[in-house]
Design goal:
single chain, Rossmann fold, 7-stranded parallel β-sheet, about 45% helix
Length: about 375
């Protein structure tokens, strides 16, 4: 099978595509996969490191209001469509897969104009503008959550596949999991709470965490692994040292974790943003989460994700606005020390998880390619 993958702008669009590519190559080493992105997006750095062939096109975000930027968008879109047509003509894919971001628009649209089968992927509960536009052209819209169907009335067909990234956390070798536990100095006899908010961290969450660290240091129920983000690490570490908490066995502070799937094997509760990829990872393992949705994303989609998780009994939510150390500590401690409630949330999360998402997605592609 010849496949073009496209998706960019954020890791939430790129990593699921790479997870799918890994599964396909493991299942069918003869599969030919090309990744199409942009020169300026994260994909231009991440994808080549994965070893996948990578080509670029020009693209600009869709505009919600008419302005001079709208003109610039259409100029770039026209150029992107021409570049997309050239790539499609040269590579001759059996199917094109879009995992999110505006780079998908020229590729998916032109694929349909050329009679090439196409699939788009919606990772969030609330679809973004690009996918709402593309759903009328794609042969299949692959969903992480069945509830998303109501927001895509013009979609031609659906497949609830889950997020392929979920499959990555289920395939961590035991030695990798053991190595990260040793590196971090985790106590196997204590529950582990993981707080992580992306590579750049989040200042309001950092403030709340610092405010609760004395309480964390004085309890014996759990150990806290706090991933600060590179930008904030030095300041937070200095504050911890100044407060005499550096030797606390209950507090482990690191700037970044390169092998998050391995660390999640030891996690009893996660605290972080409610992006689609984060949700896919923790659900696959049945890890309950306290979601603090980012208020800075388009259409407030992270809050929609978090609300959905709370309704399903698989998570809790605290809004960033008004977040305090007391509220954060009480929520974490209240769940970790209530074994019955923690177990119920673990079961709810596991029920929603789709650890076989990559396999299901690939089967969807195979069925589509066979369809006349």
């Amino acid at each position: 099978m010849r496949i073009i993958l496209t998706g960019g702008g954020t890791g939430g669009h790129i990593y699921p595509a790479l997870a799918l590519a890994r599964y396909i190559k493991e299942t069918d080493p003869n599969a030919d996969i090309l990744y199409v992105g942009t020169e300026r997006g994260l994909e231009s750095d991440i994808v080549p490191r994965s070893g996948l062939p990578f080509r670029t096109i020009e693209v600009a975000g869709l505009q919600r209001k008419l302005s001079m930027d709208t003109v610039k968008t259409f100029v770039k879109l026209s150029k992107g469509l021409t570049q997309a047509r050239k790539i499609l003509k040269e590579f001759r894919p059996d199917v094109v897969v879009g995992t999110g971001g505006y780079v998908c628009v020229p590729i998916i649209f032109m694929a349909k104009m050329m009679g090439i089968k196409a699939v788009i992927t919606e990772m969030d509960v609330l679809p973004g503008l690009a996918n709402r536009f593309l759903s009328r052209f794609a042969d299949v819209t692959a969903l992480s959550f069945a509830e998303s169907q109501q927001y895509l009335p013009k979609a031609r067909s659906f497949a609830v596949t889950g997020n392929p990234r979920a499959s990555d956390v289920m395939s961590v070798p035991a030695e990798r999991a053991a190595e990260i536990a040793k590196d971090l100095g985790l106590d196997p006899h204590k529950k582990t709470v993981l707080i992580v908010c992306g590579s750049r961290g989040a200042a309001p969450i950092n403030k709340a965490v610092l405010a609760m660290l004395d309480d964390v240091a004085n309890q014996k129920e759990f150990q806290l692994v706090y991933v600060t983000g590179q930008v904030h690490y030095d300041k937070i570490k200095a504050e911890i040292d100044n407060r005499g908490l550096a030797d606390s066995k209950a507090i482990i502070v690191v700037p970044f974790v390169y092998d998050m799937p391995a660390l999640l094997q030891h996690t009893d509760m996660m605290v972080g943003r409610s992006g689609a990829t984060t949700m896919a990872e923790v659900l696959a393992l049945g890890v309950p989460a306290l979601y603090i949705p980012s208020p800075y994303v388009t259409n407030n989609h992270q809050e929609k994700n978090a609300v959905w998780m709370v309704e399903k009994g698989a998570g809790l939510m605290l809004k960033e606005q008004g977040l305090t150390g007391r509220a954060l500590y009480d929520t974490i401690n209240g769940l970790v020390t209530d074994s019955e409630r923690l177990s119920a949330m673990q079961s709810a999360a596991r029920e929603l998880g789709r650890p076989d998402a990559a396999k299901t997605y690939y089967q969807t592609l195979q069925a589509l390619v066979r369809r006349k």
